[in-house]
Amino acid sequence: DAVILTREPSLYSNQRFLQSAQARHLKLDFIDPVQTVEASTGIWLQVDAVIPRYMPRWQPHGDRLLRSFQAAGAY
Question: What's this model's pTM, rounded to 2 decimal places?
């Protein structure tokens, strides 16, 4: 499983990532780094890779999540 950290899952580039993942029978989810609370998500141990795609103004939120995923062993 993989996730993309983004505030805009509907962007063309994010949708192309999704299409490519589906063509390879991979599961890809989108996570909003601003609205995600670590304690309420049970996905940390299930994620193999994370693609960060957020603007610099959301960097504190995104980086916090990225460190959590890295600590759980995600690439």
Answer: 0.83
